[in-house]
Each structure stands twice: as C-alpha cells, then as structure tokens.
Amino acid sequence: MDRAQLADFLRTRREALQPEDVGLPRGPRRRTTGLRREEAAALSGMSSDYYSRLEQQRGPQPSEPMLAAIARGLHLSLAERDHLFRIAGHNPPPRTGSDHIAPGLMRILGRLDDTPAQVLNELAETLWQTPLAMALVGDESRFTGADRSMYYRWFARPATRLRYAEEDHPRHSRFFAAELRAAYSRQGRGSRAEALVERLLETSEEFAQYWSAHEVGVPRVEPKRFHHPELGEIQVHCQVLLDPDQAQALLVYTATPGSESDEKLRLLPAVGARSAQAEM
Question: Region Disordered: what ranges (predicted)?
C-alpha cells in the first residue's frame, strides 16, 4: 500500500468533482475546490473521519469493498478504479461483469433524486438505487450471496413477489428465466450465471419448468404494477438505459402525468422518510 499516492490520488479526484457533477447544491458561500471531504465520504457511504484519515496518510489499509465504494462515490473511470486498487495494495477486480458503475451512469443517477431509478448488472443484482427507488421497491442492495440476484429471489424467496401484482407473476417469471438464460449464454460455462442457474434448478421447480422452455427475448412486463405497503398499487413504466461495456442497465420508473400513480409517486418522499424513522 502506497499511502502517499493513495492520499494524493483521492485528493485530486475529489477536487476534480464539482457539486453539480454529483447532484449536490453549490451554495453561495462555497470556497472549496471541488467536493468537501465530508461530501466525498457521504457519497462513498463511509464516515468523514475514515475518509479524512485516508487523505491524511493515516488509518488502516482499506478493504476491497471500501475501495469499490470510494470508486463509485468519486465517479472514477475503470482505469482510475484499477489504479486506486493497486496503490491501496489490492489487485483490481475483473472488468467483465464488474459491479463498478461507469461515471456517466453515476452522473445521471445524481440528477434523479426525485425519480425512482436503479442500476442492475446482468444477473439482476442491484448496484445502486435512488432514495425513491428504495421507497418504491425496497432496499435491494442489502442482500448478499445468491440473494443479491432478483432472479434468484424471485424463484427462491416467495416474499419477493409481494411487491408485484399477482396477476403479473407468470409474465415476470418468463421474463426473468429468459433474461438469466441470456446472461448465461454471454458468460458461458464456469461463470456466476451458470452457478446461479444450477442452484435455481435444484431449488425451484417453477424455474426448472421455465428454463426447460428455452425461451429468449421475452418482453419486459409493461407497465409494472407495484404493491406499496402504504400507498397501494402504483403503476409505472420502466425506461431502460444499457451500458454494454459494463453489462449494466439503468432502470428509471415513471408514471403517466396526472394519473393516480403519478400522485402516489409524489408521496414517496414522505412515505420513505416515515419508514426510515420507524426503523431507527
């Protein structure tokens, strides 16, 4: 671990980011060049003290998950992320199938604070959510292991389906099985996709039936109907922006303007705040 290089790199990347780049207000009295340390720490999901010690060449060697969080928070490119890992004393993660979100997608997410949106990889593992996406579908980034994949949770964890209109369940099942088959065909034998398929074949008879149909190109369920625990049914349209280099997708949920579902989306910030207080 090269503490001097790490500290210098973090400082220069932080100072190169402007508040507008990450969806933060500049404020009339701002004198700091780029982001403040506490802002970089918050974007990376860590304490200001921990982040400050890294820039001051103090503290322990950061773990790989911590470095990945910093790379996302500072909107690093893949080359910059790899450099960060190396100077911190770790081998960079593989670029194919990486959980690193491209700076372009992070910039878009930073401007979607008032919209439910999330980034998924090709195994339907949620890498990032806006606060309103968490309020709409729940915190999907908290899962570990096979449960990180929506494909796995859908077939192996019945409670996952409670957020979705029951009449749409068969269509979702077809779509998820077809999407997982597409991921398996891209990743090949010995991949994480194959391991997920094998586990689901052992776990879910329903998945095995859909898998045996060998369907591909099944249309996404549109519109999506979510059952929110406080607001009831919310009908949204899902716009998808693909990042082919990272095999990731940005999902943005919108409702027809003036509709009942549109009004319910406007209530999500208040509902999310109440839920957060209830969990404290």
Answer: 17-36
pTM higher than 0.85, yes or no?
A: no
**How confident is the chain (280 residues) per 10-residue block, as mean pLDDT?**
87 85 73 83 90 88 90 86 90 71 81 89 92 90 92 95 94 95 87 94 95 90 92 94 82 94 90 48
Residue 105 near residue 251, CB atoms below 8 Å: no
Where in the sequence is the domain holding 33, given as residue range(s)? Answer: 3-87
Judgement on whether residues 69 and 147 belong to the same structural domain of the protein:
no
Phi, psi of 255 (to 5 degrees): -120, 155
The domain total for the chain is 2
Whether 51 and 132 share a structural domain: no
Residue linked to tokens 């890498």 = 127
Residue after which a domain boundary falls, among 87, 118, 135: 87
User: Among 170, 186, 200, 196, which Cα is nearest to 244's?
Assistant: 186
Residue 156 identity (one-letter amino acid): A
Residue 162 CB coordination number (10 Å): 10
Q: What's the N-to-C CA distance of the chain in angstroms?
A: 37
